[in-house]
Amino acid sequence: MSARLGIIGSPVAHSLSPAIQGAALRAAGIDATYERWETPLDALPARLDALRAADCLGANVTIPHKQAVLPLLDEVAPLAAEIGAVNTIVNDAGRLTGHNTDGGGFVASLREAAFDPAGRRVLLVGAGGAARGIAFALRHEGATVAIANRTAARAEALAEAAGATAVPFDAPPAPYDCVVNCTSAGMHGSGAEDALPCDPAAADPATLVVDIVYAPEETPLLRAASASGLPVLGGLPMLIHQGALAFELWTGRPAPLEVMREAARAALTREAP
Questions:
Q1: Most distant CA pair in the chain: distance in Å?
Q2: Where are the domains of the chain?
Q3: Cα Rg for the chain, rounded, in angstroms?
Q4: How far apart are alpha carbons 222 and 207 in whole angstroms?
Q5: Which value, to the nearest 10 degrees, does the dihedral of the CA atoms of residues 46, 47, 53, 56 take?
Q6: d(CA 207, CA 240)
Q7: 3-state DSSP helix/strand/coil percent for the chain, to nearest 5?
Q8: Mean pLDDT of 16-33
Q9: What pTM, to 2 d.p., does this model score?
Q10: Whole-number mean pLDDT of the chain?
Q11: In this predicted model, what pLDDT tens digit does every residue of 225-261 receive, in sequence order?
């Protein structure tokens, strides 16, 4: 019997996860499909019940349901409970457990870029769901985290929850070892392609500038940082690594990272405007 996986959210039409996870499943020789499961909020309980079926391995969860799924699960892994959001659900004989691989995927992408966050100073620009997972993961890795957000109250709330420090939105990106854009600025279709969440020219030399936006691969922020001679890291590695962690939770097997990376780049090329 072929197994099923999917991504739950609204909208999910442009998700790259089916391309990435489908390629990983084929490479691993696993008889399973990965689908887009468009799910409005009022249909979420029924969708979660369907995940308990014997042929369902689990699901990814995306906007706007990462918090809404929490009371519908049987168990929430400790880090996901601390973050207060779930992006991966595992079905174990009808019992659903929620995990969060966003922060772990981000840390893995930093390490792949030869940046160890332990003992480093990191500024997160933005205080939404992505920033939340990243902030908790960085604190667990021993980084000192500062958070800047256009709405100061949101930065302060996240900083208090994650053991970080809130700083003014217009504060310069210095003195930090790493600056991370956790907003949608620069994303295709965001209406803010030319907006910079911070001025990389004001960063200290050698500051790693990271943009978790992955479409386009080179965002305006990354172009500006490169022009200033700073090292940069785009959002695609985080996408791949968080997906790899989810794959391993569902299958118990190592994720084929290079296959997933190639599938993601191919999907981005097909969807590029």
A1: 57
A2: 3-101+237-271, 114-230
A3: 18
A4: 12
A5: 180
A6: 23
A7: 40, 20, 40
A8: 97
A9: 0.91
A10: 93
A11: 999 999 999 999 999 999 999 999 999 999 999 999 9
My answer on whether omega of the bond before 231 falls inside 30° of 0, hence cis, is no
Q: Could you give phi then psi for residue 180, rounded to 5 degrees?
A: -125, 125
Interatomic CA distance for residues 66 and 83, integer angstroms = 10
What dotted CATH number matches 3-101+237-271? 3.40.50.10860
Q: Is 6 a catalytic residue?
A: no
SS (H, E, C) the chain: CCEEEEEEECCCCCCCHHHHHHHHHHHCCCCEEEEEEECCHHHHHHHHHHCCCCCEEEEEECCCCCCCCHHHCCEECHHHHHHCCCCEEEEECCEEEEECCHHHHHHHHHHHCCCCCCCCEEEEECCCHHHHHHHHHHHHCCCEEEEECCCHHHHHHHHHHHCCEEECCCCCCCCCCEEEECCCCCCCCCCCCCCCCCCHHHCCCCCEEEECCCCCCCCHHHHHHHHCCCCEECCHHHHHHHHHHHHHHHHCCCCCHHHHHHHHHHHHHHHCC
Assigned CATH topology for domain 114-230: Rossmann fold (3.40.50)
Dump pLDDT digits (tens) for 87-140: 999 999 999 999 999 999 999 999 999 999 999 999 999 998 889 999 999 999
Given a contact cutoff of 8 angstroms between Cβ atoms, the answer to whether 4 and 55 are in contact is yes
Average pLDDT over residues 38-56: 97
Of 66, 120, 139, 241, the active-site residue reads 66
Question: Are both 3-101+237-271 and 114-230 of the same fold?
Answer: yes
Report the alpha-carbon angle 172-174-177, nearest 5. Answer: 140
Q: Give the number of other CB atoms < 10 A from CB of residue 29.
A: 7
